Amino acid sequence: MSIFTKAAGLLIAVLMAVGAVAQSSDPVPASNDIADKLAKAVDYYSNLEFDSGLTMTQGLLGRPDLTAKDSIAIYEVLSLINYAKGQEFQRQAFGYLEKISAIGPCVLNLPRELWPTELRDRWYKLTKAKEMLVCPSEADPAIRTIAIMEFDNYSVGKFQEELGYLAKGLADFFQHDFSQISSLKVVERDKIDYVLGELELQQSGKVDKETAARVGKMLGAQLMVFGSITQLDSRSTRMIVRVVKVETSEIIASVDKEGKPDYLALEKELVKDVAEKLDIMLTDQTKLVLQESGTESMDAVKLYSMGLDYMDKYDYVKAYECFRSAYEKDNTFTEAKRKMEIYRPLVG
Questions:
Q1: How buried is 211 (Cβ within 10 angstroms: 0-12 exposed, 13-18 middle, 19+ buried)?
Q2: What are phi and psi of 253, to 5 degrees?
Q3: Do residues 16 and 52 touch, judged by C-beta distance below 8 A?
Q4: Which residues contact 342 (CB under 8 A, 6 or more apart)?
Q5: Is 14 left (phi over 0), alpha (psi -120 to 50) or beta?
Q6: Residue 235, exposed/middle/buried by CB under 10 A (0-12, 13-18, 19+)?
Q7: Are the C-beta atoms of residues 89 and 82 closer than 8 Å to each other?
Q8: Number of other residues whose CB lies within 10 A of the CB of residue 231
């Protein structure tokens, strides 16, 4: 059973021992109200009632019936709320992540989407120090792990600058769409950025099929996706996507699309074409989800992509403003709405 709370219009997954029981042989905790109280604490967090959330969460720490998963859940919420309270509470927030790491980095699947970028990066640092950046449980032979790299922008003239942020946004859209395919596990975009930083490849832009084996091994990925956009005029553009098999650095799929610069429509077509090349059968439900996600507003896409860039720089105020503006451009743009609500507690 999974425990969820709907806070500020966002269905937030609150990880609890009860929610994790279905994935393990651990006994059900003696008291399921731990999950309910943590869900309420996250609700306080989403409504900016940080002290109320902390009081409720800290009250759980002394309970004698806590399992390892319970403790991780409690420390996770404490880290999240302390981080939101500001710079002077950052040390406590990081300390709770260390407590989780001490219990075990792979007891539960962390980090969660709800975590802000800096907490996620700190978590990757802790898990890498324990050589558990990739958990053994993730090595499921029936599921291929895929990493989508940030797209290259080979456009010329004004399009080089105008589409600068889009390279990041397209990778995010690909990640979201591939994550809808049950036979694939998609590596988190910020984990990719962390690994590239560790290997000093992030700024050099030298990540290609030749370095894929090194990067892919750290990410636990069997496949890596490399893409590019090239817009020469206002009427047409070209998108290319190549899939590299990490073990051999061999290109096993290549898709090329040309058309008017409707990048989200092209992205959807490329996702379907790549799935076909990889012999992945898309269900009708998956096709429907792919069709309904995203936006037709290019302005919203650009704002969303800028928000991702600010998010990566820990500038949550500007990230939130971009996601909110993207959602205002198109109120069917669910990805913008979700990220807007994730970062709202961090802007006061």
A1: middle
A2: -155, 140
A3: no
A4: 10, 113, 114, 116
A5: beta
A6: exposed
A7: yes
A8: 23
Name the amino acid, one letter, at 108. L
Radius of gyration (C-alpha) of the chain in whole angstroms:
21
Please give the span between the terminal C-alpha atoms of the chain, in angstroms, as a whole number. Answer: 33
DSSP 40-102: HHHHHHHTT-HHHHHHHHHTTTT-TT--HHHHHHHHHHHHHHHHHT-GGGHHHHHHHHHHHHH
Q: Which letter does DSSP use for residue 282 in this model?
A: P
Q: At a CB cut-off of 8 Å and minimum separation 6, what does 186 contact?
A: 145, 146, 147, 148, 175, 178, 179
What's the rounded Cα separation, in Å, for the pair 315 and 117? 10
- Supply 277's token pair: 């090349």
User: How buried is residue 301: exposed, middle or buried, by Cβ count under 10 Å (0-12/13-18/19+)?
Assistant: buried
Span 197-247, pLDDT tens digits: 888 765 555 566 567 778 888 899 999 999 999 998 989 999 999 999 998
Exposed, middle or buried: residue 123 (CB in 10 Å: 0-12, 13-18, 19+)?
A: buried
Residue type, 266: L
Helix (H) or strand (E) holding 113: none
Output 26 or 37, whichever has higher pLDDT. Answer: 37
111-115, 234-238, 303-307 — which one is most confidently predicted on average? 303-307
Query: Which helix (DSSP H) or strand (DSSP E) does residue 15 occupy?
Result: none
Give the pair of three-digit tokens for residue 64: 């004698």
Cα–Cα distance measured from residue 323 to residue 301, given in angstroms and rounded to the nearest whole number: 10
| Omega within 30 of 0 (cis) for the link into 111 | yes
State residue 11's pLDDT score: 34
Handedness of CA 253, 249, 173, 76 (dihedral sign): positive
What pLDDT was estimated at residue 287?
Answer: 84
Question: What pTM was estimated for this model as a whole?
Answer: 0.86
Q: How do strand 237-245 and strand 223-231 relate by DSSP bridges?
A: antiparallel
